[in-house]
Design a protein that fits this description.
The complex is a heterodimer. Chain A is mainly β. Chain A has no helices and eleven strands. Chain B has no helices and eleven strands. The chains are: A mainly beta, B mainly beta.
Chain lengths: 115, 111
Amino acid sequence: DQQVKQNSPSLSVQEGRISILNCDYTNSMFDYFLWYKKYPAEGPTFLISISSIKDKNEDGRFTVFLNKSAKHLSLHIVPSQPGDSAVYFCAASERGHSGNTPLVFGKGTRLSVIA
Amino acid sequence: SQTIHQWPATLVQPVGSPLSLECTVEGTSNPNLYWYRQAAGRGLQLLFYSVGIGQISSEVPQNLSASRPQDRQFILSSKKLLLSDSGFYLCAWSALGGEQFFGPGTRLTVL
């Protein structure tokens, strides 16, 4: 059973517009959520995270929103740039459990930003 | 600053041959270490993780194994590779409760 779901395998957005990537989770024990960006043939790079005590975290063009009641989080990129074209992975963990639980990843969403 | 190394970057192996992929981390002590596989068109599948020397947790039963002979060294092995073992293998580290940082990956093709 997939605990972290990214239901959109791909997304195309025009340069300058907002990109919204969505993620749903089923495990109510998850309390730490992250987004990673991955280019082909490279390891994922950490983008932004949010703890369950917050509902929003912003870093430059990237903002992550968390809706705990809906078990949903989203990543907003504004304005979108061609260099943002990559696969984005949502991940979650039970940080408050022991600090040692591995991240659970979604299957990723391929974002294409069209110039 | 911390860095994570993986080698080799690419590997082509025949079915039935052994495998050894190595991962080392610099600039941190007692990291949590992870091995993931990304098969074609799929997400990141956690294979093994380790919270200390000699401590390995396996997430998916398969013909792969992992070992942690030193604090900052993590090795992924197989005695006999299968075609289905082809994929992109990623090593990652994290501090306790922190985000994971990934290495550059190894592209394994089993023929």
